[in-house]
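Following up on my earlier thread - several people asked me to post the actual chain instead of describing it. Fair enough. Here it is, all 195 residues.
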Amino acid sequence: MGAPPVEWWLDAYFRWLRHPYYLALQSAAETYNAAPQAVQITQVITDVPRREISLGRVRIRFFVKCRPERTPVQQPATPYAPIRISTPEATALDRVRYASRIGGMSRVQETLRSLLPAFRVPALKRALDAEGIPAVAQRLGYLIDQEGGAPLAEIVHRWLPSRIAGVPLEPSKQPLTETAHSRHWRLWVPENRSS
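Reply from S.P.:
Thanks for posting it. Predicted structure:
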């Protein structure tokens, strides 16, 4: 591969940089066996913009988030080195947040389908509190609902403020004039996705 696996050195690299990080998005989903497609690029969230790294066949793409150290993470027991990985619940929220950069909501929903069995109510509440963005929670709640996870969707709905703005499910793709409205989630949903 031209370099050791990312999991062996990523934690040491970020300790050397003195910046927070965690393995995220599709890379995190893969660790929970929830990646429908093989991950070609390691996806990492940190607090400042960084150029993509290529070492042999290893590629790392960085995504920026304000205060990533607040995001709930796990450190699996690995024989080589520690590594911070977002929890399943935080992984789902991040995938919704960065959907336009990682293939859209349909790709998010594919992964969510496999991640849902790993969700835990206290961990979902912690992840929602850490993210703190109602629009992201609205979108995630709607997708959980669509996957038949009504009890978990209700946890998300109760977390939302009593007054929330209506937002599009896919802000970068759908003009509001071509959509239906989901009253429960205050979302404008593309006609072919509404139910």
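The chain has seven helices and nine strands. That should answer part of your original question.
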